[in-house]
Design brief:
140 residues; alpha+beta; Lipocalin; 8-stranded antiparallel beta barrel
């Protein structure tokens, strides 16, 4: 009887651990550092500036931030299904002429609040609410 009870308790605890792991952070595929590849029109995106260091990070605690040419930015985020919902954005406000169009387009899409996303291998595609614009990132 004791062995059966111990076995049942062990199975119950292991089931709880497995369920917790499976239902954990829904944003797990997003977590990490990403580099900007292209942005803009979903039918004809613009290639990111070749000599511009970019980095966007999604962390496991629901924080998002980065730099796509000039200003640093950040927000909190939540994932539900194929959608990412961003909280209020914060950003530095430096003026940079070389990267302003890239930065403006990318932040314009990301500040949509709720966007769709898709991950294919090492590529993350974020699509604006109306489907007309994209941000394409590669996992670093």
């Amino acid at each position: 009887m004791k062995k059966t009870s111990l076995l049942l308790i062990t199975l119950f605890v292991l089931s709880g651990i497995i369920l917790a792991a499976c239902s954990g952070n829904a944003s797990a595929p997003l977590v990490g550092d990403w580099k900007l590849i292209s942005f803009g029109s979903s039918t004809n995106p613009t290639t990111a500036g070749p000599n511009v260091e970019t980095s966007i990070n999604f962390d496991s605690n629901g924080q998002f931030g980065g730099n796509v040419g000039c200003n640093s930015f950040g927000a909190d985020y939540k994932v539900k299904g194929d959608q990412i919902t961003f909280g209020s954005f914060v950003s530095t406000l430096m003026f940079c002429t070389e990267t302003s169009s890239q930065e403006g387009a990318v932040l314009g899409i990301l500040s949509d609040r709720t966007v769709k996303y898709r991950i294919d291998g090492d590529l993350l595609t974020i699509t604006s609410t109306d489907g007309s614009s994209v941000v394409v990132l590669a996992h670093k």
